[in-house]
Amino acid sequence: MTIHVHAYIAVTDMERGIEFYCRALGLRLRRRLHKDWAELEGASTPIFLLVRDRPADPIHYWTAHLDFLTDDLEAAANQACEAGAVLVREVQERVWGRMANLMDPFDNPFDLIELASGGYDRIDYVDSER
């Protein structure tokens, strides 16, 4: 069995969504599947944008949370902010690398991550319950 991942991001305006993700992350419009559904390429997994109105009941609304890995966190964060993202807190230093938490224009959170050499393998996690 093979599993492939498709990432979906809820946006309230398709044209703004395409413009933002293309400018912010350097993605490209691959195709439009419907007036409210588009596929972007340029990441390691296809990114789909889907227009969804925010209902009064947030339990029935999904967005997305994605981490985008980069080799230049400052450049990637600057590019995303110039495209309309908002940095929601200072860049964080971790044992595995650095992370910038951002919000897109549609209130979807996303992170930009620059892994240190060894990345997540540098985490020395000990489960105290064992």
CA-CA gap between termini? 32 Å
Calculate the mean pLDDT score and round it. 87
Shape: globular
Question: Helical percent range?
Answer: 10-25%
* Largest beta-sheet details: 5 strands, mixed
- Low-pLDDT runs of 5+ residues are none
Summed up, the helix count is 2
Radius of gyration: 16 Å
Give the beta-strand count. 9
H/E element order: EHEEEEHEEEE
Structural class: alpha+beta
Portion in beta strands: 25-35%
SSE diagram, text form:
Layout: E1 7-11, H1 14-25, E2 28-34, E3 37-41, E4 47-51, E5 66-69, H2 73-82, E6 86-87, E7 92-94, E8 97-103, E9 109-115
Parallel strand pairs: 1-4, 5-9
Antiparallel strand pairs: 2-3, 3-4, 6-8, 7-8, 8-9
Kindly describe this structure.
- By secondary structure, the chain is of the alpha+beta class.
- The chain contains two helices and nine strands.
- The strands form two sheets. Strands 5, 6, 7, 8 and 9 form a five-stranded mixed beta sheet that branches. A four-stranded mixed beta sheet has the order 1-4-3-2, with helices on one face.
- Helix 1 packs antiparallel against helix 2.
- It is globular.
- The mean pLDDT is 87.
List keywords for this structure.
single chain; 130 residues; alpha+beta; five-stranded mixed beta sheet; four-stranded mixed beta sheet; 35% strand; globular
In short:
By secondary structure, the protein is of the alpha+beta class. It has helices at 14-25, 73-82; strands at 7-11, 28-34, 37-41, 47-51, 66-69, 86-87, 92-94, 97-103, 109-115.
